[in-house]
UniProtKB/TrEMBL annotation:
<dbReference type="InterPro" id="IPR046348">
    <property type="entry name" value="SIS_dom_sf"/>
</dbReference>
<feature type="active site" description="Proton donor">
    <location>
        <position position="343"/>
    </location>
</feature>
<comment type="pathway">
    <text>Carbohydrate biosynthesis; gluconeogenesis.</text>
</comment>
<dbReference type="GO" id="GO:0004347">
    <property type="term" value="F:glucose-6-phosphate isomerase activity"/>
</dbReference>
<dbReference type="GO" id="GO:0097367">
    <property type="term" value="F:carbohydrate derivative binding"/>
</dbReference>
<protein>
    <recommendedName>
        <fullName>Glucose-6-phosphate isomerase</fullName>
        <ecNumber>5.3.1.9</ecNumber>
    </recommendedName>
</protein>
<feature type="active site">
    <location>
        <position position="500"/>
    </location>
</feature>
<dbReference type="GO" id="GO:0051156">
    <property type="term" value="P:glucose 6-phosphate metabolic process"/>
</dbReference>
<dbReference type="Pfam" id="PF00342">
    <property type="entry name" value="PGI"/>
</dbReference>
<comment type="similarity">
    <text>Belongs to the GPI family.</text>
</comment>
<keyword id="KW-0963">Cytoplasm</keyword>
<dbReference type="InterPro" id="IPR035482">
    <property type="entry name" value="SIS_PGI_2"/>
</dbReference>
<dbReference type="InterPro" id="IPR001672">
    <property type="entry name" value="G6P_Isomerase"/>
</dbReference>
<dbReference type="GO" id="GO:0006096">
    <property type="term" value="P:glycolytic process"/>
</dbReference>
<keyword id="KW-0312">Gluconeogenesis</keyword>
<dbReference type="GO" id="GO:0048029">
    <property type="term" value="F:monosaccharide binding"/>
</dbReference>
<dbReference type="GO" id="GO:0005829">
    <property type="term" value="C:cytosol"/>
</dbReference>
């Protein structure tokens, strides 16, 4: 288990250190706390750590055995031990001909084969060689899936889609029929491909939506050739076939749902973006894998990101973090990260089953910049709780518009959070703007910013397939490193199971005409009211 003794001493010692002072105390701070990796530039110098605390955090990573754990991940050991599985998403983005093993079994040839199948299918759909039941080319895809079978492909599509795409890709996740109704609006069954994505092919929402989409296809298409419109993507091909997917694309159980966007789970994106774009994204992620495996811990981007979070959460008691992508195309990143980080590391027991005695995953939330600035950033600047911020900044987001108004806001936010404004400064500004002394005294505290609020900047020149792949892989490895240091299993998700079971029981009560006698009074009353 991780030894936190020195970390706790450093946290108690440095809790009140001011970030601005650290730049003067350590002239090398910027160089020490910035990293370039796979097309991304990371600046962690506006984090709350002193130079000494930074070194202590690196020692924490060493003592927790991050390097050995990393070797176990890449070596395909059963690090998801509650499910007896390897965790080998890096194998999905390695260059063709790699040699990964999951629990000793060689898996790379299988990965390459599925990738080639996807590319061939995508090319055929895009060229019109693959048609629907009536011989017309596909113009739209409805991607059905939830959680990891939805959020990753959505980030990829939003991140890389042309403004006016050849193929219209729509996503349906929610079991609320409204989601499907909106997605199908304006689409014609003859030119629509439905891609049902579910690792297990047992997920209630996805199967319900797949049934609805199938009925929609059946109402608009002849029976012959209709199955060409209904594709399954799964790690359980038998179940998908039994459900009625004649054609399936598979991935293996060593691909965790929230780590699956590199697999056939992104088939819809491979088709809609083209296989070359998808390959370039895989290459960007592979470049981040190489960096993660080879860079020393003190210059290792995922490790430093993880340590900054742990310093904030466990050292300085800051149990939330906001992520603000300053790029419209990255607007889904916060939702993706919520699943990646909170489903991975929202855990309450250590690997040996003993209760955790410290914090694990913080609450992660966010909105794209600049929108978030006009919503919850008030609290980040002046609320009593310190919420560390992460700015993902893209220099050139869109060819036709000047982007500096966008990214200058990101820089300004980081600056404002760190520098703040004293009451004296606020008072002087008020006086300078014509307020009298009484008015300046009355308003000065309202216009005071405490400052000393930490942030990380992740900057890139453009959001390309490569930088998007690198960014998502960065967050995956960061999440992994945190799990190693917290000594938890980042790769299971038992916490989502209980609700699923109880939802089934409630549906049974609905079918039986009312709440069962054992239901608690509040739930029983809600059930009766909603029926
Ligand atoms: O509810 C959580 C979860 O199990 C996620 O981990 C997973 O990504 C999602 O459901 C969807 O699961 P599936 O791909 O099996 O439909």
């Amino acid at each position: 288990m991780t030894d936190w003794t020195a970390f706790d001493v450093a946290a108690a010692r440095d809790a009140d250190a001011r970030i601005v002072d650290q730049f003067a105390a350590d002239p090398d701070r910027l160089a020490r706390m910035t990293v370039e990796a796979a097309g991304l530039y990371l600046d962690l110098s506006k984090q709350s750590w002193t130079e000494a605390a930074f070194e202590t955090c690196l020692d924490l990573a060493r003592s927790a055995g991050v390097e050995a754990a990393r070797a176990r991940l890449f070596g395909g050991e059963a690090i998801n031990f509650t499910e007896g599985r390897a965790v080998l998403h890096p194998a999905l983005r390695a260059a063709t001909g790699a040699d990964f093993h999951a629990l000793g079994e060689a898996v790379s040839a299988g990965v390459d084969a599925v990738r080639a199948d996807m590319a061939a299918f995508a090319t055929a759909v895009r060229s019109g060689a693959e048609t629907g039941a009536t011989g017309k080319p596909f113009k739209a895809i409805v991607h059905i899936g939830i959680g990891g079978s939805d959020l990753g492909p959505r980030v990829v599509w939003d991140g890389l889609r042309p403004v006016d795409p050849q193929i219209d890709l729509r996503f349906v996740a929610n079991i609320d029929p409204r989601d499907m109704a909106e997605a199908l609006t304006g689409l014609a069954p003859e030119t629509t491909l439905v891609v049902v994505v579910s690792k297990t092919f047992t997920t209630q929402e996805t199967l319900a939506n797949a049934e609805a989409a199938r009925a929609w296809l059946a109402a608009g298409l002849p029976e012959a050739g209709r199955d060409r419109h209904f594709i399954g993507v799964t790690a359980a091909p038998d179940k998908a076939k039994a459900f009625g997917c004649a054609r399936t694309f598979a991935f293996r159980d060593w691909v965790g749902g929230r780590y699956s966007l590199w697999s056939a789970v992104s088939l819809s994106c491979v088709i809609a973006l083209g296989p070359d774009v998808f390959d370039a994204m895989l290459a960007g992620a592979a470049a981040m894998d190489d960096h993660f495996v080879s860079a020393p811990l003190e210059k290792n981007a995922p490790v430093l990101m993880a340590l900054a979070q742990i310093w904030n959460v466990d050292g300085l008691n800051r149990p939330a973090r906001t992520v603000a992508p300053y790029a419209h195309a990255l607007r889904r990143l916060p939702s993706f990260l919520q699943q990646l980080e909170m489903e991975s590391n929202g855990k309450r027991v250590h690997r040996d089953g003993s209760p955790v005695t410290r914090q694990t995953c913080p609450v992660v939330f966010g909105e794209p910049g600049t929108n978030g600035q006009h919503a919850f950033f008030q609290q980040i600047h002046q609320g009593p709780q310190v919420v560390p911020a992460e700015f993902v900044i893209v220099a050139k987001t869109h060819a036709d518009a000047p982007e500096s108004p966008l990214w200058s806001n990101a820089l300004a936010q980081g600056q404002a959070l760190m520098l703040g404004k004293t009451t004296e400064e606020a008072r002087a500004e008020l006086l300078a703007s014509g307020a009298d002394a009484a008015e300046a005294d009355r308003l000065a505290t309202h216009k005071t910013f405490p400052g000393n609020r930490p942030s990380t900047a992740i900057a890139m020149e453009r959001l390309t397939p490569g930088t998007l792949g690198a960014l998502l892989a960065l967050y995956e490895h960061k999440t992994f490193v945190e799990g190693v240091i917290w000594d938890i299993n980042s790769f299971d998700q038992w916490g989502v199971e209980l609700g699923k079971v109880l939802a089934r029981a409630i549906l049974k009560d609905v079918s039986a005409g009312g709440p069962s006698a054992t239901l608690d009074p509040s739930t029983a009353s809600l059930l009766t009211r909603l029926m």
